[in-house]
Amino acid sequence: MDTTVKTNSIKAWILAARPKTLSGAAVPVIVGLALAFSDILTDGNYPLTWSYNGIPAILCLLFAFLMQIDANFINDFFDCLKGTDREDRLGPKRACAEGWITMEAMKHGIAATTVASCAVGLPLILFGGLHMVWIGLACVFFAFLYTTKLSYLGLGDLLVLVFFGIVPVGATYFVQLYPRTFTTEAYAITWPAILAGFIVGMVTDNLLIVNNFRDREQDKISGKNTLIVRMGATWGQRLYLAIGILAVLLCIPFVFCNHWLAALLPVLYLIPHFMTWRKMVRIWEGRELNAVLGATARNILIFGILLSIGLFF
Fold it and tell me: Measured between alpha carbons, how far is 179 from 165 in angstroms, rounded to an integer?
């Protein structure tokens, strides 16, 4: 037990929230907004105003942040409960396992962040209709199901693709272009929005791949059959490299909707991606892979910014 952090203190809750992971929550919202604002300006019938565009944009971002924190709390609590966070853990320290936050307090923290997420997301009904209720409920449901069940079945990567890519990008785009009169859904969703969500989900999945690559031996002992445990370490590091390359290649179809920069700028992402992959292969195992985790989070942000600039202009 780590006693350097006072139990249930503000510092303990900040550490449990894992602020560094919030970039993964922000990127899909930013990409969705960039594409939506570009289409709004091109269309001319949907002027950019604070009440119609600014408020739902802020709500989407806050919901994404709160759901990410909620998922971190849930992961912290249930992994400690199952005994997955043992003394041989290689990743960043966990709040419950280290005794920074008591299990009872974490229960209340999970309840509070879940309610706060729903409260922030509920007003999105005014901008996207009742569709937002089902999307919000799905986010909450799978946040719990991921840690308690799906991550042990090797389905974590699929959930990242859906809930850190397709869903947040698509939902953010949807609330910006969904007609305020609710009489038609002509602008509700487009193939570039779906493609952008798929690409962002792929890039974000590399964060999970690094986590599972680092923890592969511990996961085997815990019965956590992640994709890396099933495939093996060699195929795992190859998958990391391949996903980044494939994500950039999938940006090429954006040229068909006149987003030329969206097809070109993401190529720059391959530079830090390749360098991070080389570091991953060189380190191979141990706690030093946490540096690769941090670099991957940075690369996701770089990719998100490049793609957003390309889509907006």
Answer: 23
For residue range 129-155, what is the model confidence (pLDDT) as tens digits?
Answer: 888 999 999 999 999 998 888 888 889
* Cβ(71)–Cβ(143) below 8 Å: yes
- Which of the 8 DSSP states describes residue 94? P
The DSSP secondary structure of 98-166, one letter per residue, reads HTSS-HHHHHHHHHHHHHHHHHHHGGGHHHHTTHHHHHHHHHHHHHHHHHHTGGGGT-HHHHHHIIIII
Residue identified by tokens 């991921």 is 146
* pTM score of the predicted model: 0.92
Cβ atoms of 144 and 74 closer than 8 Å = yes
- Condensed to tens digits (0 to 9), the pLDDT of residues 46-61 reads 667 766 789 999 999 9
Q: Answer yes or no: are the C-beta atoms of 174 and 60 closer than 8 Å.
A: no
Q: Which residue, 229, 168, 188, 228, is CA-closest to 39?
A: 188
